[in-house]
Amino acid sequence: MNSHWLIVLAELVAVTGLIVLFAFYAVTPARAQSSRPVGLAPPPAFAIAIRLLAQGRDIEAVERLRDVESSAAYRSTSYAPEAVYVIAHIYRDRLRDPIQAMAAYDLLATTYGLDTFPHKQAAMAERKALGRVLDAANGKHPLYKILDFFVRVTGRRSYSFALALFLISTLVRLALAPLSIRQFRSAREMQALQPKIAALQAEHKNDFTRLSTEVQELQKTHGVNPHLGWIMALLQAPVFFAVYQAVQLYQYHSGAGFLWIGGGLAAAHPQWLALDLGLPDIPLLLLYAFSMYAAQRLFPAADAAQAKMQQTMAWFTPVLYCVWIGAHHTASAFVLYWLISNILSTAIQLYGARTPRSLAPVVS
User: Fold this and answer.
1) Cross-strand partners of 261
2) Using an 8 Å Cβ cutoff, are 261 and 332 in contact?
3) Nearest CA to 19 among 291, 297, 268, 347?
4) Mean pLDDT in runs of 10 for the chain (364 residues)?
5) What is the rounded CA–CA span in Å between residue 323 and residue 30?
């Protein structure tokens, strides 16, 4: 193993540790630690919320209960999950808003344990029942039906949702593989041409038209297509949004798990591990960030300036994505799709990198 790979391995270990710290402090919700402390009176907001509900002022009641859940004095007591539980009931039974009700149930599922919320099992049963209602309503959407077809093909088992995402990602990546390899090789040639482009910029610094013509001719001679990058992005964008919407529609499908997701370990540690593929999962998010970092560091830049920029982006981008995805409580199913897609994309690039870089002109 050469020194480059040793450096990459050390950096992968370091960036994983940093992402864990970011996830712990910025992503993981605070967990209640104890039940009702002795001497701590019930929050006045409870009584206020009851009066507001009696007056039909449901939204104001929800706001008062949210004050309890976010209060520093109560959020580590059993009063906080009780407030969230009542919010779920208000949205489900009074406001008829199942999406907001599910969001409240999800907060209960991922933040509070049985030691701090004795009614959690009842709440999870209600969450599962509400999920079935939402799943039935979403089942009419064409994207739901497409994803459900792949789930059916893989046997409609607990892990079939994950396998369906793997199949979709594989099909998309294989379809785009020829263009992806061509784009990667073109970008690699473009890096190698940077010294010649810099020389042309110095030679024609006062003649932009001539400079543009010379650069275009140089790129054409060496088979470089600067437009492949945005063409790839344009082709992938519709697939990206379609898969995202399909996952959003399918996330309430009951019993969907994968590896540790949805197992006994997840039930014991709901703050870190997803109870199903519709909830966030910290280890899966870290694996995705790890794959992003590895993908960028596996292909060293051509010169020192580009290498420095690449190293900065290799650290910054995974951390940014990790915090953003965690802050938006993105479903682990979509993170799994991203992870699979990223691994396949990296494998395709490694295959494309087997062709040695050369500045030999293209012979037409």
Assistant:
1) 258
2) yes
3) 291
4) 50 50 43 48 84 91 89 80 90 92 86 71 87 89 90 82 88 84 73 70 68 70 70 81 87 73 74 77 84 73 62 73 76 86 83 58 43
5) 16
The size of the chain, in residues, is: 364
Q: How many CB atoms lie within 10 A of CB 60?
A: 15
Q: To the nearest 10°, report the CA torsion of 152, 155, 158, 164.
A: -50
| CA–CA separation, 61 and 57 (whole Å) | 6
**Separation in Å, CA 313 to CA 13, 109, 277, 308, 320:** 16, 35, 29, 9, 10
Q: What's the gap between Cα 345 and its chain centre?
A: 16
Express the helix, strand and coil content of the chain in percent, nearest 5 each: 70, 0, 30
CB 333 within 8 A of CB 277: yes
Residue 262 φ/ψ region, left for φ over 0, alpha for ψ in the -120 to 50 degree band, beta for the rest: left
* Alpha-carbon span 240 to 233, nearest angstrom: 10
Half-sphere exposure of 266 (CA within 13 A, CB side): 22
DSSP code, position 356 = P
| Cα three-residue angle 146-149-153, rounded to 5 degrees | 150
**Cβ–Cβ < 8 Å for 357, 192:** yes
Q: Look at the alpha carbons of 63, 64, 66, 70 in this order and tell me if their dihedral is positive or negative.
A: positive
* pLDDT of the residue at 87: 92
DSSP 97-143: -HHHHHHHHHHHHHH--TTT-TTHHHHHHHHHHHHHHHHHHHTTSHH
What is the token pair recorded at 301?
Answer: 């830049």
